[in-house]
Amino acid sequence: MIFITGTDTNVGKTYVSSILAKELSKKVKVGYLKPIETGGREDTLTLKKMLKNDDDLDLMNPINLKLPLSPNIAFDVENYQLTLDEIKRKILQSYNILKRKYEFLIVEGAGGVCVPIKDNFLMSDLIKLLNLDAVIVSRPNLGTINHTLLTIEHLRNKGINIRGVIINCMTDLNEVLHYEKTFETIEKFGNVEIIGIVKNNGDYDINFKKILK
């Protein structure tokens, strides 16, 4: 089981999750859970199509909000009636069903680790609630050192183990100035391993053993 989080929204968590689902399905029976999705169900539908499973969408994505907003804001403006405890129970119910059904479960967050869900409950608190290790999806461009190190620090302060970082390149990596030194800096100052690089041409090099361990 693994929780896929990222340094930001639209950093490529779903794309990386789909790669992991495709490759890991060759070895084990893989399921997918998107506890909270805002702005529709595009992420959940993408993984359902990839995995070709018969799971109900409400099981794969127990909390769905229509507007593309931070969950706490979407809950408020959509007048979502469930309390935080009820939201937690609904997510845990889906998680436990899917965990029993599959040998390996990919759980994908919404936004980054500090995104508020409801009240004072953050996305990182959800990772902690599910008792999962995290994989951080990051980008290679200027600014990623700060974003990635802050994400690492926050997760560790919450007592969450980090399996590693996967760099998702939305542009040609060769156009990123001295990207190797950026990656070295993340590994050195974050005391973390970059376990994968996903290139914008569709190629990827990921240590899947680190994901499955």
UniProtKB/TrEMBL annotation:
Pathway: Cofactor biosynthesis; biotin biosynthesis; biotin from 7,8-diaminononanoate: step 1/2. It is an enzyme of class 6 (ligase). GO terms for cellular component: cytosol. Substrate binds at residue 38. Pfam families: AAA_26 (PF13500). The active site is at 34. Mg(2+) binds at residues 14, 43, 108. It catalyses: (7R,8S)-7,8-diammoniononanoate + CO2 + ATP = (4R,5S)-dethiobiotin + ADP + phosphate + 3 H(+). It is found in: Cytoplasm. The keyword Magnesium applies. Its main location: cytoplasm. Its EC number is 6.3.3.3. The keyword Chaperone does not apply. One of its GO terms (molecular function) is ATP binding. GO terms for biological process: biotin biosynthetic process. InterPro entries: DTB_synth_BioD, P-loop_NTPase. It comes from the Archaea. Its cofactor is Mg(2+). Keywords: ATP-binding, Biotin biosynthesis, Cytoplasm, Ligase, Magnesium, Metal-binding, Nucleotide-binding. SUPFAM superfamilies: P-loop containing nucleoside triphosphate hydrolases. ATP binds at residues 10-15, 43, 108-111, 168-169. Belongs to the dethiobiotin synthetase family. Catalyzes a mechanistically unusual reaction, the ATP-dependent insertion of CO2 between the N7 and N8 nitrogen atoms of 7,8-diaminopelargonic acid (DAPA, also called 7,8-diammoniononanoate) to form a ureido ring. Homodimer. This is ATP-dependent dethiobiotin synthetase BioD. The lineage of its organism: Archaea, Methanobacteriati, Methanobacteriota, Methanomada group, Methanococci.
